[in-house]
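User: Reviewer 2 asked us to show a designed sequence for the structure in our supplementary figure. I'm pasting the C-alpha cells here. Could you produce the per-position amino acids so we can include them in the response letter?
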C-alpha cells in the first residue's frame, strides 16, 4: 500500500511539473475495455499514440517531442513546428498543441489564410497577381477591398425600379438610382450648323493671314529692288578707236588726237614728241597712198 501511495504521489508531482512548464496532461484520455487491457481511442492534447491497447492507459500515449505538435486525438506521430523565415516573422511560438503563428514584415501582407507566404499589400482598385505583386483592375472590373481579386461590374441594378446612372470604376461598382426614365426622353442631337461654324471661321482666318503675309513679302521685295537700282553705279564705256581710212577728215581727227596727247606731257619732251608724231603721220599717209 505504501508503494502505491508513493507512486501516486510521484505521478501527481510529475503532472504538476508538466503543467508548470505549460505542457498538457499525458497518457490516454479516452479508452475502452478489451479483456484484461484497455484500448485508447483518443490521447490527451499534445500526446501521440504509442500503443493501441495495454493494461495502463497512461502508457498508451506520450507527449510530443520538443519543436513538434499534434492536433489529432489519436495521431501516431507529431508534426514538426513551423519556422517563420524570410519575410515572415514569429507572432506566437509553437506548443505541443499548436503550430507556430507567423505574420509578415511591415509593408507586406499574408498571401493566404495560413500566412504561408507574403505579398505586396494591394490597395483598393488593385488585385494580387501570381508573382505576388499588385496590378490595377482592368477596365470593366473593380476591387473595393484591400487584397481582393477584381470583380466584374454589375450588368443591372439589384433592386426593381432602379436604373444605372453611372458606370463603375476600378474602386466601385455601377451606381443605380430609383428615379424613373421618362418614355419620351430622347438624346439631344448636336446641331450640324453649330459644329460647322468654328471650322469655317478657322479656314477664313487662316486664308486672311496667308494673304496678309504674301502682301508683306511682296512689298518688302519691291522696296529692296528699288534700293538696288538707286545705288547701282553708271558703266563707263571705253573710247572707240576706229581704223584709219583715206578720208581726210579721219586723218585730221587722228592728228588732232596726237596733238592733244602731246600737250598733256611735260615741256621738256615737247619737241621730241612733236617729231615722233610727224613721222608717224607721214608713215600713215604713205600707207594710205599705197
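Assistant: Here is a per-position design you can include in the supplement:
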Amino acid at each position: 500500500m505504501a508503494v502505491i501511495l508513493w507512486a501516486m504521489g510521484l505521478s501527481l508531482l510529475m503532472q504538476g511539473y508538466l503543467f508548470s512548464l505549460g505542457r498538457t496532461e499525458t497518457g490516454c484520455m479516452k479508452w475502452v475495455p478489451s479483456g484484461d487491457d484497455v484500448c485508447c481511442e483518443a490521447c490527451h492534447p499534445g500526446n501521440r499514440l504509442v500503443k493501441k491497447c495495454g493494461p495502463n492507459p497512461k502508457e498508451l500515449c506520450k507527449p510530443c517531442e520538443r519543436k513538434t505538435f499534434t492536433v489529432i486525438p489519436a495521431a501516431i506521430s507529431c508534426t514538426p513546428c513551423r519556422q517563420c523565415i524570410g519575410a515572415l516573422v514569429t507572432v506566437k511560438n509553437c506548443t505541443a498543441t499548436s503550430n507556430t503563428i507567423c505574420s509578415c514584415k511591415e509593408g507586406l501582407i499574408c498571401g493566404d489564410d495560413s500566412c504561408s507566404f507574403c505579398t505586396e499589400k494591394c490597395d483598393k482598385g488593385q488585385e494580387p497577381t501570381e508573382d505576388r505583386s499588385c496590378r490595377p483592375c482592368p477596365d470593366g472590373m473593380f476591387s473595393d477591398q484591400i487584397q481582393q481579386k477584381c470583380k466584374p461590374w454589375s450588368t443591372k441594378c439589384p433592386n426593381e425600379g432602379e436604373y444605372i446612372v453611372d458606370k463603375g470604376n476600378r474602386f466601385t461598382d455601377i451606381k443605380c438610382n430609383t428615379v424613373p426614365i421618362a418614355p419620351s426622353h430622347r438624346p439631344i442631337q448636336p446641331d450640324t450648323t453649330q459644329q460647322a461654324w468654328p471650322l469655317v471661321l478657322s479656314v477664313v482666318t487662316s486664308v486672311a493671314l496667308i494673304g496678309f503675309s504674301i502682301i508683306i513679302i511682296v512689298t518688302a521685295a519691291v522696296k529692296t529692288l528699288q534700293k538696288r537700282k538707286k545705288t547701282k553705279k553708271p558703266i563707263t564705256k571705253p573710247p572707240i578707236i576706229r581704223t584709219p581710212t583715206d578720208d581726210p577728215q579721219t586723218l585730221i581727227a587722228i592728228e588732232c588726237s596726237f596733238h592733244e596727247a602731246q600737250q598733256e606731257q611735260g615741256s621738256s619732251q615737247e619737241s621730241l614728241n612733236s617729231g615722233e608724231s610727224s613721222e608717224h603721220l607721214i608713215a600713215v599717209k604713205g600707207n594710205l597712198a599705197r
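For the response letter, you might also mention the following. The chain has four helices and 17 strands. The two ends are 190 Å apart (CA to CA).
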